Amino acid sequence: MNQQQNDTNALPPKTCTIERLVTVPKDVEKVLNGLKTATRRNGRYADIGEVMTLEGQDFVVEKVYSQSLGELTDEHARQEGFANVEEYKQSILSMHSGMPWLPQMRVWVHEFRRA
User: Fold this and answer.
1) Do residues 112 and 59 touch, judged by C-beta distance below 8 A?
2) With CB atoms counted within 10 Å of each terminal CB, which end of the chain scores lower, N or C?
3) 53, 114 contact by CB (below 8 A)
4) CB atoms within 10 A of CB 80
5) How far apart are CA 24 and CA 65, in angstroms?
6) 108, 44 contact by CB (below 8 A)
7) Which residues contact 43 (CB under 8 A, 6 or more apart)?
8) CB-based contacts of 68: which residues, under 8 Å, 6+ apart?
9) Contact status, residue 38 vs residue 76, Cβ threshold 8 Å
10) What is d(CA 15, CA 78) in angstroms, rounded to the nearest whole number?
């Protein structure tokens, strides 16, 4: 069960800025094409209601919550623009050399939609 937070006041302080939320060119393209509607980060990069602008298009953050890697489903992977969890996992591990994939490791989920 994920700890979904819809009250921004209950969230810890951001650890980065929304401008850094989606930066990988392939991911930016997926967002612009509607194939990616969420991103997972090891810190909190956005508040609910905050706007991310990619190539002049605005996307509103709708949900921000903590989730463990062990909770990921194929549906979550599809939100990230991948076919399934294994494809998503391999993509993440290829970007973060030496990173272990631990089921108990927690990440921050940022779900967004086109404004």
Assistant:
1) yes
2) N
3) no
4) 21
5) 22
6) yes
7) 14, 15, 16, 108
8) 103, 104, 105, 106, 107
9) yes
10) 25
Q: What is the pTM of this model?
A: 0.89
Half-sphere exposure of 63 (CA within 13 A, CB side): 14
CATH numbers and ranges of domains, the chain:
3-114 (3.10.400.10)
Can you read off the two tokens belonging to residue 47? 């508040």
Q: Collapse the DSSP code of 28 into the 3-class scheme (helix H, G, I; strand E, B; otherwise coil) and give the result.
A: helix
Q: How many residues does the chain have?
A: 115
Taking the chain, what is the end-to-end CA distance rounded to the nearest angstrom? Answer: 28
- Where b means 16+ CB within 10 Å and e means fewer, 12-50 reads eeeeeebeebbeeeebeebbbeeebbbbbbeebbbebeb
55: left (phi over 0), alpha (psi -120 to 50) or beta: left
